[in-house]
User: Fold these one by one.
Assistant:
Number 1:
Amino acid sequence: MFAEKNFEGCRVMISAGASGIGRAIADAFVAAGAHVQVCDISEPALADARASLPKNSVFRADVADPAQVRAWFEHALGLLGGLDVLVNNAGIAGPTAAVTDVSDEDWDRCMAVNLRSHFLCVKQAVPALRDSNRATIINMSSVAGRLPYALRTPYSASKWGVIGFTQSLALELGGDNIAVNAILPGIVDSDRVHQVVEAKAQAQGVDIQAKYEEVLEHVALHRMIPRSDIAATALFLASSAGRSISGQCLNVCAGVQTLR
């Protein structure tokens, strides 16, 4: 994993940081010496994070809710004394269904968590980031934000939205020396990906193992992505080596060509 020595004292906030990719990123920053504050909505994930992450670094919040985002930032910034890195990692898979079968409520919830949460967190973070000499925003998109994805329209639309948000923010905040980038994970070896693949197999009436083979057939390296690779990319973007990178969408996807 990429690491550098100068994360000592770096102040980091990560949404949905108690499990999955967010937890991998949190663990990587902590191991590199940063002070990390995470929020999450899952009680089991929060309990696990409290047991292993530094004391007082975990907060329960639904980042689709403006009031809860404000509460998290008040708590975290009070402990950190400022902010250097914001990682907008919150996201849900949303429904796997034909567009005519997607409910209005499922569409709205997917957009709220996957896209609006980024806006809400950035809005709170920017005043603190302006006082940092290493200010970095990392938004979690997906290869579904650059490739069409049948039966996954809410998720895909939200992730395309994250890319537009990222590139617009990079221009808007560049004068404040705030770097803004997006990471586009591919087929990550995670519970969420396994649930999606299995749901698509069921929706299409095909064998689950055959569906996995079909999915990886269109990946250049023919494998899933370990979460540690996403974490390493986040550390690189927040490092001194990444200070000249902004407005970019980094595909960490093992060469995904199409989504099935």
Number 2:
Amino acid sequence: MTSILMVCLGNICRSPLAHGILQSKLSQDHFYVDSAGTANYHVGDSPDSRSIAVAKSHGIDISNQRGRQFKVSDFDTFDYIYVMDQSNFDNVAKLARNNKDIAKIKLILEVDSSVNNKRVPDPYYGEILDFEHVFSLLDSACEILSKELTNSSR
């Protein structure tokens, strides 16, 4: 089984959306998707209500997810680690034990060549439209990613 981890700062806005979107596009028989945050602010918390609402409006239920902090053992558990921005990349890379760990970390928007800015903006202090924008960015990236992952697992 191929395992994919989505990572943002608090694990309540961006990474839960990425987690839910990608999971909805992949066979759960062949892929495991999870999410985590680099900080411990929201461990055990549900995703932000706006993330839940935006996901739900697109037919995806992320309400059962719970925030957790990224840990070093995630390098052993996950084949791919997708982060939302450079700060997340740097924070995860600081925990890497070797080059093999670092090679697993990628900015999620790097998969989408049509996007110039590879940073998924943090919508936490924004409005529902900011969450919709993040959903749209992640949905496009996850569509590309799901095709790549499905093709590589065959």
Number 3:
Amino acid sequence: MELSELQNECLACRRCPLCETRTHVVFGQGVPNAEVLFVGEGPGASEDEQGLPFVGRSGQLLDHYLEAVDLSRDKNVFIANIVKCRPPQNRDPLPEETQACLPWLRRQFQLLQPKIVVCLGRVAAQQLIDPGYSVTHDHGKFVEKGGTLFMATYHPAALLRYPVNKPAVFGDFAALREKICERCTHTY
């Protein structure tokens, strides 16, 4: 199976009640041979409207951080979310919504086989790294799981609310660039 086939299956998903209120399924965006996978918690209003991840104000900020370390969703990374449909009022996904949607992310992971996964925010980090993960205390630290490096940083939307954390995120992206140079064969 290819990523495009999985996307077509995902677009018809009705596994949880979020399908009733969505405008679009937000499968993900990027290159199919990405060695670096970014994972957020779920789509916001702009993402639901356009069917693409991180396209609102927080997405513009994410793109600036990506550009700063020569990354781009158009050339060398893939961006996805824990849940593929927008939770109402941008609330955290409920446990049953997350459980219904995680198989899509697992299949994306199996097809991409990333060498590095970057969790954008607490929800993604607690799902993929550790349920007790604290982005405030542990951001920028790499953890190896099953041969893949995982790291978390602040969610771009959190940076819009608390810009004081922007320099820390820049440091996280600089550390990410170093790990990419060590671990990845065709990202740069």
